[in-house]
Amino acid sequence: MKEYTVAVVGATGAVGRMMLTVLEERNFPVKELRLFASPRSKGLLLPFKGEQIPVEALEETKSFKGIDIALFSAGGQRSLDFAPLFARDGAVVIDNSSAWRMDPEVPLVVPEVNPHAIAGYTKKGIIANPNCSTIQMVVVLKPLHDVAKIKRVVVSTYQSVSGAGQKAIVELMEQTKAWCEGSAMPHPKHLPQRIAFNCIPHIDVFLPNGYTKEEMKMVEETKKIMEDPTIAVTATTVRVPVFYGHAESVNIETEKKLTAEEAREILRAAPGVVVLDDPQNKLYPMQIDVAGRDEVFVGRIREDLSIEKGLNMWIVADNIRKGAATNAVQIAELLIKNYL
């Protein structure tokens, strides 16, 4: 099997470290691994397949020649600055930030939904990884859309703190510890409000239309990935005091009526989907159970009593794995299988 030189940019962050884990777990054919992060992480050693790989300073590197695939999770500005440089030197960039997602010359890919879109990487040498909440939703919605055509989606999310990075994880830990000990509550630094024992309806910045940037990502990305601009989408995104895993309450209206059982049958056969739907026996997806898994879990499937052709469902996935690192590595797997 051909092997590839792979770079992970933003290797010291939560998603970057998970990319290393997933590359190793899935036995991706890595000939050489190069790790990049900010200058303060230069020289840090990270484990991969029994070896210790040193981190290079991204800003101090002048050439990226010889790299075949670069997995980026270093933030939007670094992606804008450096992804074109990697592509210029011959790498295919798979970027986890929002920087390139809505660029019409950059494919936005979820392998279970639109794998054919990967072919568009040749335009700029960049493939975009969607928003974590969008990924898990479209994995479930696409097979239903193919059968019944979805007209409208209403989604409310319950997103864990890991979606805001390692510092937000620590913030929840420190606030929870302070509450349990009866000590002074630390002031929020990395989230807009206190997160311990609280829900915050504020992820990313607010836009002039009253929605947050996170909510509009879900609106716009869903249409691009599903390749149907006619789907109406509205979203409310909420940060909750959970460490790993995003949950979503999703309501859809379809052109063709689907019963709940028909939807379950379609989803049981769908790639990457696990149906957990026996509420009478307390069986439904929960964040605490799906952490560490790569599949998307769905349950609480039931007909919407307020409209003739509607369904409600509850969708849960690990946002660091399927919502970020695993999706990126799956794209890379298809890239080497079909294109490189």
Can you put this structure into words, describing what you see?
- The protein starts with a strand and ends with a helix.
- β3 and β4 form a beta hairpin.
- It has 340 residues and is of the alpha/beta class.
- The protein folds into 2 domains: 4-130 and 324-338, Rossmann fold, CATH 3.40.50; 133-319, 2-Layer Sandwich (Dihydrodipicolinate Reductase, domain 2).
- The protein has helices at 14-25, 76-88, 132-148, 166-181, 213-226, 260-268, 287-290, 321-338; strands at residues 4-9, 30-37, 45-48, 51-57, 69-72, 92-95, 126-128, 150-159, 232-239, 246-254, 273-275, 296-303, 310-317.
Summarize this entry quickly.
It contains eight helices and 13 strands.
Provide keyphrases for this structure:
alpha/beta, Rossmann fold, Dihydrodipicolinate Reductase, domain 2, seven-stranded mixed β-sheet
Strand and helix map with partners:
Blueprint: E1 4-9, H1 14-25, E2 30-37, E3 45-48, E4 51-57, E5 69-72, H2 76-88, E6 92-95, E7 126-128, H3 132-148, E8 150-159, H4 166-181, H5 213-226, E9 232-239, E10 246-254, H6 260-268, E11 273-275, H7 287-290, E12 296-303, E13 310-317, H8 321-338
Parallel strand pairs: 1-2, 1-5, 2-4, 5-6, 6-7, 8-9, 11-12
Antiparallel strand pairs: 3-4, 8-10, 10-13, 12-13
